[in-house]
Specification:
two-stranded parallel ribbon; mainly alpha; about 110 residues
């Protein structure tokens, strides 16, 4: 996933071709509900506030749907995180791959 909520909103705006006014309204609604602006809603900021001790990030380097930079941002900001990356499996096939599944199961079993 993208690490910043604001990035998610921009991507949705781009895909749906919304005018800027719609994005501004959504930003205001999110701010009202969350008590923070979308720019402040980030995974790196949340990392220190969560009860999750160990995190396994699974990502493919060549995926087009979500840029690999988001995986590295989470890795850098989250203590006790590990990155399991593949090359060429893509966003949808990665969790159907037997070797990836085995590594995920192994990670969980260690905990």
């Amino acid at each position: 996933v993208p690490t910043d909520f604001a990035d998610i909103l921009l991507k949705i705006k781009s895909i749906m071709n919304f005018p800027n006014s719609v994005l501004e309204n959504v930003n205001q609604m999110v701010s009202k509900i969350a008590g923070e602006s979308p720019a402040d809603l980030t995974i790196p900021k949340a990392a220190g506030k969560t009860q999750i001790k160990d995190l396994l990030i699974v990502h493919d380097k060549k995926v087009q749907v979500v840029n690999f930079k988001y995986a590295t941002r989470i890795l850098e900001s989250w203590n006790n995180s590990k990155l399991l990356f593949t090359v060429g499996l893509g966003h949808y096939r990665i969790l159907k791959n037997k070797k990836v599944i085995e590594k995920i199961v192994s990670f969980i079993a260690e905990k």
